């Protein structure tokens, strides 16, 4: 027959209290340290992601410029000329007169400005680059008139500064994306015809060559006058 437990031992054991357990949680100092570490990690991560984000924006800008390039070719094929530069709809000469994005023509065959904003609506392309800045549009005036074999271009693109190596010249049109730094203060309408592509700054550009535009016109069946008519 099993023995019953000793009563005194049982009562003593039952009355014995367990050691207090340590309460879980963070003190204010510990929490502050954790937050500081997390902030440092997040800041370092964002810094590391900045070059990647910039590269992605530049790639998007290049894709947008390529679409503008194709749209310019399409406009020449349809209309036999390039569109005029646009100006902000809020400009005094535009208020209540026209719709933004269609270009600004002084008279048939003559543009009011040769330097301005991209006539995005006439081309069917977005008006702004990935940084939210409007594309700039520079036109050789002769290319808004009917195009001939002798139609000249007078725009030049140089690398890094006004006296830098020439990347392209005798261009009919140049479209420029501002880039991350944005545009400098407004320049007057009498800008020089030399545009500068700067390393790491303003200067993502697109400029279809005159030979390409004329060749596409001929492929589309448009007659191009290549000789001056002889005098009777």
From TrEMBL:
Name recorded for this polypeptide: Prepilin-type N-terminal cleavage/methylation domain-containing protein
InterPro entries listed in its UniProt record: N_methyl_site, Pilin-like
Keyword presence, Aminoacyl-tRNA synthetase: no
TM segment ranges: 31-52
Keywords from the named record: Membrane, Transmembrane, Transmembrane helix
Keyword Transmembrane helix: yes
